[in-house]
Design a protein that fits this description.
signal; hydrolase; 10 helices; 11 strands; polysaccharide degradation; 31% helix; alpha/beta; Polyhydroxybutyrate depolymerase; 365 residues; Rossmann fold; xylan degradation
Length: 365
């Protein structure tokens, strides 16, 4: 009897672990790319995931009527109807915000299979801490999801990705509505509206550059290239691109890497060099870049003398894979490069731009 009991414990434990592992294998790989397990035995990884999930719990933002004015610092969550579907976004207002001093606005777009809450997780991306340090307002829109839960959301960035692309979600219209809504809720400097995004979110930032250059002064894409199907910006716009040379999802030299999701849900990604070349041409910049940062394991090159006094900048890390440089390690096999901070480089770049979002497009050189 005792022998049977001793036998049952490891057998039941093994069955439980097998069931959990099986359920994890059913998750989209894009989600596991953002929230995957690290190394070690399965038991160790499951234990680490439990610990991580406890650490990841955040104070939920205040839910409010989307028409209400925001009159104090804090975190807020809103739901609006757009194109027949409920869409959500959350806003972080820093402590130093004052209605008498219009603030810059950063729109931060999560990766494919992610969520606005995950992008707002300061443990991984640090954007809320950066907002507090610099005094800008940051808004985290939620991508399009066919599920009522809103999980596994993606962005319609042109040729990518998944349900948002396949159902032709009007994500540009949604983000335009979010920017207008936040600008009515808070005192926002309309000349300092920026967008950033990770992976599929970075791709969406490029679509915003193509279709909302009259709203955004600059965008910064991290680990996501320009996969738009058409691009006719109303004005020149500053572009920053940050990418790891060893990215195994959105490969530096083009194509979907071995760690990418099912090819039917993504695309044969445009390369980083082709993306930069496109925007250098689009903005009529001097094709010879200047090295503006060089440190072991990373460098940044800037293309200047562009129309409208904008610029195009590329920052490359040698390591880090598909991640947010300077951030903390997600549940994946590769830790982000710490040779530079995406947040620091990005905000320095944004502050250096002097392009009013309402400027008129100039004729090409």
């Amino acid at each position: 009897m005792q022998a049977n009991a001793r036998l049952r414990k490891p057998v039941l434990a093994g069955i439980a672990i097998s069931l959990i592992a099986c359920s994890l294998s059913l998750l989209p790989r894009e989600v596991l790319a953002q929230e995957s397990f690290g190394g070690g035995t399965l038991r160790e990884r499951l234990k680490q995931r439990l610990l991580d999930s406890r650490q990841d719990k955040q104070v939920p933002p205040q839910r409010s009527d989307s028409l209400s004015r925001i009159d104090k610092p804090g975190d807020y969550s809103f739901s609006i109807m757009h194109d027949g579907s409920p869409r959500t976004y959350r806003v972080h207002v820093p402590e130093r915000y004052s209605a008498e001093n219009p603030a810059a606005l950063l729109v931060a777009l999560h990766g494919g299979g992610g969520s606005m809450d995950f992008m707002a997780n300061d443990k991984y991306y640090g954007l809320i801490s950066k907002s507090e340090a610099e005094g800008f307002v940051v808004v985290f829109p939620g991508g399009f999801s066919p599920r009522s839960s809103g999980k596994f959301a993606t962005w319609n960035a042109g040729n990518c990705c998944a349900a948002a692309r396949d159902q032709n979600a009007d994500d540009v219209g949604f983000i335009r509505k979010v920017v207008d809504q936040v600008s009515s809720q808070l005192s926002i400097n309309r000349k300092q509206i920026y967008a950033t995004g990770m992976s599929n979110g970075g791709m969406m930032a490029y679509r915003l550059a193509c279709e909302m250059a009259d709203t955004f002064s600059a965008i910064a894409a991290v680990a996501g290239t320009d996969n738009t199907t058409s691009c006719t910006p109303k004005a020149p716009i500053s572009i920053l691109h940050i990418h790891a040379r060893n990215d195994d999802h959105v490969q530096f030299n083009g194509g979907a890497g071995e760690k990418s999701v099912s090819r039917s849900k993504v695309t044969d990604y445009v390369s980083v060099p082709a993306t930069i070349a496109k925007w250098v041409r689009q903005n009529s910049c001097n094709p010879e870049p200047q090295r503006v940062l060089e440190t072991p394991g990373a460098y940044c090159e800037r293309y200047s003398e562009c129309r409208g006094n904008v610029s195009v900048e590329l920052c490359v890390t040698e390591t880090g894979g598909h991640s947010w440089p300077g951030g903390n390690k997600l549940r994946s096999n590769q830790a982000p490069s710490q040779t530079l901070s995406a947040n620091d480089v990005m905000w320095s770049f944004f502050k250096s731009t002097s392009t009013p979002a309402v400027q008129q497009a100039e004729p090409s050189k």
